[in-house]
Amino acid sequence: MKKTELMLDDYLYEFYRKIGAQVGKTAEEVMSDALFRFAGESSLRAIDKKERGR
Fold first, then answer.
1. Contact of 30 with 18, CB cutoff 8 Å
2. CB 23 within 8 A of CB 16
3. Measured between alpha carbons, how far is residue 53 from residues 14, 18, 48, 49 in Å?
4. pLDDT tens digits, one per residue of 19-35
5. Contact 27, 36 (CB under 8 A)
6. Residue 25: Cβ-neighbour burial (10 angstroms; 0-12, 13-18, 19+)
7. CA quadruple 44, 23, 5, 14: dihedral positive or negative?
8. Cα-flanking dihedrals φ and ψ of residue 9, to 5°?
9. What does the alpha-carbon distance between residue 50 and residue 46 come to, in Å, rounded to a whole number?
10. Left if phi > 0, otherwise alpha if psi is -120 to 50, otherwise beta: which for 39?
11. For the chain, which terminus, N or C, has the lower number of CB atoms within 10 Å?
12. 30 Cβ contact partners less than 8 Å away, ≥ 6 residues apart
């Protein structure tokens, strides 16, 4: 597994921290989940767009 460092503003970190506190996760876990979901949805849109172009 690779490790990546992400720089973000304090207010944005606080946003993810508050969400995490509500669901029992760290801010890092919430950000990871959000990025993973975004990647999956983006991939599905790209596949759909490619298939429609045929």
1. no
2. no
3. 42, 42, 9, 6
4. 999 999 999 999 999 99
5. no
6. middle
7. positive
8. -65, 150
9. 6
10. alpha
11. N
12. 16, 17, 19, 20, 23
Cα gap 49→52, rounded to integer Å:
5
In whole angstroms, give the CA distance from residue 54 to residue 42.
19
The structure's pTM equals 0.78
DSSP string, 1-54: ---------HHHHHHHHHHHHHHT--HHHHHHHHHHHHHHHHHHHHHHHHHHT-
Q: What's the maximum distance between 2 C-alpha atoms anywhere in the chain? A: 46
